[in-house]
What we know:
Elements: E1 7-8, E2 16-17, E3 40-44, E4 49-54, E5 57-67, E6 70-78, H1 87-101, E7 105-108, H2 111-119, H3 132-138
Amino acid sequence: MGAAHSRAAPAGWPAETPPLSPYPEKERRDPMTNTAPEPTVELDEPGHRYTITVDGTVAGFAKFFDNNGQRVFFHTEIGKEYGGQGLGSLLVTGALDHVRTAGLRIVPICPFVKSYLTRHHQYDDLVDPVTPNLLARLGA
């Protein structure tokens, strides 16, 4: 992450303007409450995915398919304009918590989900290995 730099002000303005944020989307605030919108994770059952929304807009998703009591995660994506905000981790946390509540198991084919699980051992009891049959279903 690079440092923000001050800009020279146009003639007639104060000598310096505040530094620009490298993540302007982080600064969106509700004008009435001065709070940032809270991300929300939801199951989109027909789309076979979990979504994370920010301020009513889908910012990312984690795709899955179900296999005999397993929820197989194979692709996670966060929109470029939402990168660097930790939304991927929030999304996966919400999805995995839902999987636990639903009494399902987790199969992490997606590299992001697999990496997340190496750092969050509270889900170790839910993880099943990736098998050749599951990879074949994806055409991998």
